[in-house]
Amino acid sequence: MNVNQSKCFAVVCLMMLLLPLQLQAEGPVVEKPHTFSAGTPARASEVNENFDRAYEHIQKLLDVVCKYHPTEPLCQTTDSQEAYTNDFGMTFVLIPSGTFVMGSPEGETGRRSNEVQHNVTLTQAFYMQKTEVTQGQWKAIMGANPSHFSSCGDDCPVEKVSWEDAQEFIEKLNLHENANKYKLPTEAQWEYAARAGSTTALANGNLVEKSCNLDTNLNEMGWYCANAESKTHPVAQKKPNAWGLFDMHGNVWEWCQDWYESSYPTTSVTDPMGPSTGSSRVLRGGCWADDAQGCRSAYRSSYSSGYRGSHLGLRLMRTL
To answer: What topology does CATH give the domain 81-318?
Structure first.
């Protein structure tokens, strides 16, 4: 085999390597389909060594691609279910691990000073509830409905629940499954899931209006003061984001696990959990009574952990 033939053979080997991909928990892994044994033993050994080197280089390339573009189909995992539904009809969507820019750019409409941009890496995939916890789901676990808008029905988000109430709900749900998998999302997990790969004010584009005027993009995605008629609405009536999550903008505010801190980190962080202590807990997403700017992906709010209001609800995450 001459030099040109060897080069062509190497290219063919690389092409073969790109075909058999197994998607595993840590990302895509290139599987070597077979070992070459044709020709003399020395030649076969040489070919296999070159093959192994090519395999290693391709794997490194895939690792780099998936580090910076985790939402690419090639980088998704298949060992975990894409969706999970529990005994109470709560459906969870698999959210991939990845890196994103948390916060908002200085020119974003409605931006506040506590939204300084910084890189965040989430090293573990997780499940995020497809909708806000509904009144029906809350009643099934807690036995009563605390909602101000109870006449809205079982498919409407539960509200008038405090952060502390949410913890009791989660404890009972975990006991039911004899596991410790359900939690409130961290603030970083919440924004990562809300953005679903987007970098704009909303998951479906930029925001034009700041107040209660009708904003075209927000009207597609959620309920707020311009379209909600001063009340909550059944979940999953608006457009979902790219990861299949409904009502991440508006309807009810959603509690996060973190204590609130007004200043963000100034450097890149990995799996942030928020401060160790504080006086209030993070809320995200905006609600039926809020203006448009309060429903942005980056908008941050907080209340004391015992506060209940007709605009406060929750959405759970679940570990794999």
So the answer is: paralog of FGE (formylglycine-generating enzyme) (3.90.1580)
